[in-house]
Queue: 3 jobs
Job 1
Amino acid sequence: MPAGGGGAPVPRPGGPATRPTPAPAAIEVRNNQLETQSRNDGALLDTLDSLLSQLALGPDTEKILMHRQLSMSGVGAFVAAFDELSRRVVSLSSTSGALPGHLRAMTAIQRRGVELAALQRGALARAVAFVESELAAGHHKGVDLAGLHAHARQLRPLLALAARVSPADLDRLRRGYCAAITALLARSAREIAEAARSAAAQLTKTLSAALPATPVSQASVAPRGQSFAMPRRQENALLASQADPEARAAEPDAPVLETAFVTGLQKLLDTFIPLAQRELDVASEIFSCSEDGSDPGPADQGPRDLGEVLVSGPGQHILNLASEMQGPHALVGIPALAAVFAWQRRLTRSGQGKGEDEVASALLGLLERVEAQLTGAVDAANESSLAGMRRYVAQRSTSALSASAVKSTHVLPFLPRFLESVRRVEAALSQGGPGPRNSPGRGAGLATLSGVRGGPPRPSPFGAAPGAEPGAAAAGQAAALALARRGWATQLAGALAAVGEVAARDQKHGPRICLENYVLLQRTFQSRREGPLADVAQRVDTECHAAEAAYIEQQVDYFGFTPVLALSRKLDDLCNSQPSTRPPAPISLSDATSMFATSTNGLAKKLGALAQRLLKHFGSSSPELVPRIWQRLEAICLSRWERIPKQLRTWYPTFDLPLTVPQLKAQFLSTKPMQTKAAP
């Protein structure tokens, strides 16, 4: 202690410093601050406890949300629990404004928010997985579309839950639903396609047993890639049946084979195109989960993708069935295209109703692929037909075959097959046009190849105006007919060229070959002189008339009347010229007498041989030609025979023919060819 004993203690050197003693006032202030802070901390703890208690879930809520197996019976409880959880999560968001920022920043609050968000994500994942499994299992349980619709509507509370929390998951569920619907549609489409194939296979067996053994009937049911020869006996039976109405009526209806394919494809289109549009509308209604009922739409993809999903299932079966219309069945693509064209027009001009825009582009894309398949098959069939004609002509052009082959050639084998394809396509169009159909019984109203003796032809769709049917069906029919017309015009040009090329190899048999084949064409197209095939029919008529005139001229020469007709034509020219002075006689009296004597010598025998020749040429293939050509020959000869004496008496007043007109007419009558029906 320092001297004096008073004052502050003096620290010793090297010892610890001593604190100054606070003033009483400072101590009081500090105590007040601690008391205030203690009260504030207590209130904050009370607030935190209150918030945590508010964020706590009910006793069963967390258990329900974390339960791994969700069932349809527990959907209501799950949705209620999820709603409770969502309210807690929303209250912690910065946008809700439910909590001030300093409270949200508290560690306990943030930790609880992370826990609730994780619980929400897990519950949502379980809900989405459950909906996906229910939708995917729906089409495996044998339910139909209506059942799947009802089941999806029962899941709407879960869909609404996904729509509020995760639109991307809602789009995922929508696609899963569309995939389930597509699976059901694909199953139905497969059944329809298989039914069409089964019907075609059954008809193939039936027709193989029922049809006569002709190349055309065989070609109707032949395996793809096979061809058939044309034996003369079978050719005669075929062509005779075409001219004989009784035989034609008894022949089985080969086009029903193609009708099985066409009907199957049309049923697929008529069923699933409207159904795809309707199903997208139903999907929009089921997935309209907002309060106003509007569809929130997919989050990451355009709505067209959903249309493609719905169309993909049945669309693949439609494409598969269309791909089978090739080879021998390729021309059936023409009536099938009528349905495709009709639906393209309907979809293009359809209204803008809900759902139609989303699926129309997918349907139009499918129809474009079907059109490309069918059109390509038809074009390939036409090209194959032309190639077959060229091969046939090339085979007949060899030196080893040309001499004998032309003599034995009658109707070229590719021609009946071409004409049969015309009949088959017409029959398929008549039996099953595009669009809604109330068709008569099978075989009613079919066009035929029946000839002149067969009576008037039955109605053909190629003779009807496109406006006879309303709207899209008529447009589709017209487009298909235009395609058929182009193909047949090309094939007809190739057939005429091939016939002419084969006929040109032999001057003796050439006119007969041309006439025999052209008459078959004329018989086919006689019912098409009006309508889309009028120009084709007109060309056939022109070629047939020219071939008939050339053949008649050849037969006149055959029985020795060519000099007589040539003299008569020359006398016509001289008598019609009316010169100022009488021209010199075109033939001397002795030469005229000798010429007429030679022409009439053995005339009955010559006419009899001509009659047998006509029967040999046309008795089997075109029997109606025999009396027609005979009558034309008789009319030409009698007309000239009657005029010649009057013309020659201008120079030789005493001239007379060795036969009178009645005598010549009697010669023709006595040798007239008599046709008898060939034995079967």
Job 2
Amino acid sequence: MDKRAPYKARIARSFPLHEMGDYETLELIHRLSLQDAQERKATLDRAYPRTGLTDERLALEVHTKELNQSLQRVVDAKVVRRLNPTPVDSQRKDVGNVEIKDRKTAPESAVPPIRPKAAPVRGTASRGRGRGGKVAANARPTKPSAPSPTVDCVGCHDPIGQQSHILTRCGHAYDPKCVVNMVEAATKDENLFPPRCCGQEIPKRAIVPLLPNDTRLKYDAAVKEFAIDRRERVYCNRKGCSRFLSRATTEDEPTSSIFCKICSARTCSRCGGRAHSKLLQCRRKAM
């Protein structure tokens, strides 16, 4: 008799990413669930080493994949939350409930009453004034426009409204403020570049229009820098500057002196050290 318990009873279910969730707790839950799944897989491999791909093992693989994807979304959302300089999360536990409460407690006098319009009768409409001195309507009543749907920013959870924003491939929206914060962090940390949401890269054509000039320059510089392998980059040799200059030249290419526009120092394009005469050998070769 097979004493194995049902698969779903032995693993933790994956928790959906809630837009106002505690990301630290969600990340811990996902990592513990992954640990349970890995332990279950190890138990199956030891107990049934010759068994092929059973239903339980297939379900375990699918569940592990879903947990990894959900964990990546939690980590991305946590990074955005950390970069966003909005009020403390303790003051924003439930934005949706606060908005609903505000609508309910708002004084009725703040909203002007809407008076229903009488529909015109066809065949009796005429121009000008009739015998009774009343103006006859000859136009059809206009239908009230439907309210535009509100979208909340996944970073700060503020309603975006009609302002420009980014809608990612995974369906999340970012307002301009959170986009700038995300790009600023990505230009300083290569591990965060390019900006991503749920593990998917956000296209450059969607980011650039929302950036101010100074952030756009940093973003363009990061695109050029991070496109080059780390071992082939040349940075300014002056301490305290270390600005990215260009790609290193190889032994088959002529060595040049690269001028830094920030500190005016000159750097050898091959060894990355202080610029020197071409007659002198480089202290180290470009890797």
Job 3
Amino acid sequence: MPSVEIDSVVSYYKPEQAFKRIGEYLGGEEQTGRKIILRTQTSPRKGLYFVVRITEFADELPAGCFFEVDLLRPDKKRPVTKRFDLPANPKSHREIWLGFTGDDQPANDEPPVAWRVRMLGPDGQELSSYQSFLWSKPADDESASTEQ
């Protein structure tokens, strides 16, 4: 298996019309361009998306790889975890959009409190992860002195 890492993750709210291309208006299906788009619900397409850049092309990963996103929403007390399976024959792209759509997106398009994205192999072993600053509690700095 190639050594693959998550290079970066950014999150965006995207409206439905951001995904419509001219081909769809002419009766075709969704054109995803140079990215792989995976959603918690296929419709509606608007929602919170985590844009994940990986260091290898998705089609070089072993079959069965998947992503898990842990999301702490402002309207929930506990994190929500969603799984996103890569398609059996993924495109040769390094950008993967993981979308919380429909009932899974935070209410009123509020930004998440914290999040973590994990890429896992077919056996469930973590290959790489990337998280927001607030996901984990910083370690106490034992060398810091409170004396003045």
